[in-house]
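User: Okay, second chain of the day. Same drill as before: sequence in, structure tokens out.
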Amino acid sequence: LRQRGVRPAMWRLLHRVGTAWMSEVRAFYRRERRCQPRVAVDILLVAQAFGTHDLVPLWLLKAFLSLHGNPNRPRASYHPHLEDLYGLNARMGLWAQSPALGPVLEENVHALIAWANRQWCGLEGQCQPRLTLNRILGLVREHEEREQADLLSAQPWQRSAGLVLDCKLPGYRAVLIGNARQLWEEGKVMRHCADHFRDRCAEGDYYVISLRPERGGRPLATIGVRRQFGRHVMFHQVTGFANAAVTSGVRREAVRLAAQLGRQLRNPGMNPCVHEGEAEVARASVSGAGVADRTATVAV
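Assistant: Same drill. Structure tokens below.
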């Protein structure tokens, strides 16, 4: 463990708090049996980046892991991909333990981490240690305001025009995101990184579908659909609020909507209610309650 970077201080912390907490983030990782020891080490490396005096709160650890994956799209590891933010993590770990700052951080953690993923490493090294939580949150708000202003005049994506989806979940409708501002708002409301696909959506290589209540309110889930080589349309992912796992029923509907979208792209102007292609959906296996099966990619 020490050879892999797990410090003795982390070992002492585990003796004090135990290891049951690790099962809470296990869903972020792939399930292959041969990966179990490496998964355990990876969890420890990410957790110790937040400090070893106290265990990192699970809401903070999960929000950070969501930068690279989620229970609907699990990964083999996170530590190598996110360690450039560990300087910020150590400070977030201290803020999270503060009675005054902890609630403020928890309320804004998703926006802060999304901002840091793009902006933190660009700040001058001498500037980073002097930034307080309130100052960082001010920078986050300024960044969001600039993005909103830039997106006010966002033009519709031509490749999404005329596409209509028919949702089979009672009480919900499928909304195809049609421009950059809608995509940004979806990511902000749902607290995930849908906005990272903005350029691919504009080019027609990616489509985002929002499952929304017919009576209004926060969406149930966000669906990602890939288009490769201009013709092959494949279900990519579906995620709930703050990257939470979705139920098997929602996942089946997401796969079905991806197939429906593929048929419309192949035959513009067709009625989405015709030729549901149930056989295609049936071939998409769903493992567990909301856990993504990476073999379930559906080519339409």
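The radius of gyration is 21 Å.

User: Thanks, on to the next one.
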